């Protein structure tokens, strides 16, 4: 019961910056583009509806989790505009694999925050594929990457630590989250979890 309570507490730590940044953007759009502000309010409601739903779930399909990330990225597109480019390479047979809810958004948010070029542009690549026993999810950016003296494997901020802890508590050794340098620049986050079908 203690372990379940700890997992639930970790899952509840949705970064308040998501709400703060989005509300600031909406406040600006109310004056400059009311229809767009209305669309953002509706999208924000969808994002938090999923977050509340996910708090009660032990697992969801990857498809549901990716839909949530897409809604989150729609909000961020309003902030970044053409400076945000997202490419997705999703294996169709991976969509019904079970994953812990709310594990991808913190990683995408981290990439948006740390993966910006000096010009403020962000290029994200989201990829999923299946091995015989595992589902692999990777998120990478083309930003400045890790400092040359750092060790990326155990680095990262609160969001990355949160996801890593949840995965390690749920699946144990051999699964979880890894950080690495992206080629030719930037950072890469890779999640490996058991292949469980819905």
Task: Tell me what the structure shows.
This protein has 198 residues and is of the alpha+beta class. It has helices spanning 2-11, 16-32, 34-55, 62-80, 105-114, 158-171, and strands spanning 60-61, 84-90, 98-99, 122-130, 134-141, 176-181, 187-194. The strands form two sheets. It has a five-stranded mixed beta sheet, with helices on one face. The chain has a two-stranded antiparallel sheet with strand order 1-3. Helix 1 (2-11) runs antiparallel to helix 6 (158-171), helix 2 runs antiparallel to helix 3 and helix 3 (34-55) runs antiparallel to helix 4 (62-80).
User: Widest sheet: strand order?
Assistant: 2-4-5-7-6
Please tally the helical runs, counting DSSP H or I stretches of 4 or more residues.
6
Return Rg in Å.
17 Å
Q: What's the shape?
A: globular
Mean pLDDT: 85
Low-confidence stretches: none
Helix share bin: 40-55%
State the assembly state of the protein chains.
single chain
Going by helix content, strand content and strand pairing, the class is alpha+beta
* Main sheet overview: 5 strands, mixed
Give the termini separation: 25 Å
User: Percent of residues in beta strands?
Assistant: 15-25%
Order of helices and strands: HHHEHEEHEEHEE
Would you report the number of β strands?
A: 7
Q: How does the SSE layout of this entry go?
A:
Layout: H1 2-11, H2 16-32, H3 34-55, E1 60-61, H4 62-80, E2 84-90, E3 98-99, H5 105-114, E4 122-130, E5 134-141, H6 158-171, E6 176-181, E7 187-194
Parallel strand pairs: 2-4
Antiparallel strand pairs: 1-3, 4-5, 5-7, 6-7
Helix pairs in contact: 1-6, 2-3, 3-4
């Amino acid at each position: 019961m203690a372990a379940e309570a700890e997992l639930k507490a970790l899952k509840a730590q949705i970064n308040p910056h998501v709400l703060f940044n989005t509300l600031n953007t909406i406040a600006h759009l109310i004056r400059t583009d009311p229809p767009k502000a209305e669309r953002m309010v509706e999208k924000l409601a969808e994002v938090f509806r999923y977050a509340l739903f996910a708090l009660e779930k032990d697992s969801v399909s990857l498809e549901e989790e990716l839909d949530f990330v897409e809604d989150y990225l729609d909000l961020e597109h309003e902030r970044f505009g053409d400076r945000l480019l997202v490419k997705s390479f999703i294996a169709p047979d991976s969509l019904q694999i079970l994953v812990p809810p709310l594990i991808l958004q913190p990683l995408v948010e981290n990439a948006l925050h740390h993966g910006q070029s000096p010009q403020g542009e962000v290029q994200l690549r989201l990829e999923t594929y299946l091995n015989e026993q595992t589902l692999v999810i990777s998120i990478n950016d083309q930003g400045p990457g890790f400092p040359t003296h750092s060790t990326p494997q155990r680095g990262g901020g609160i969001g990355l630590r949160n996801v890593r802890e949840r995965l390690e508590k749920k699946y144990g050794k051999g699964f979880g989250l890894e950080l690495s340098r992206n080629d030719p620049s930037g950072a890469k986050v890779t999640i490996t979890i058991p292949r469980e079908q819905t």
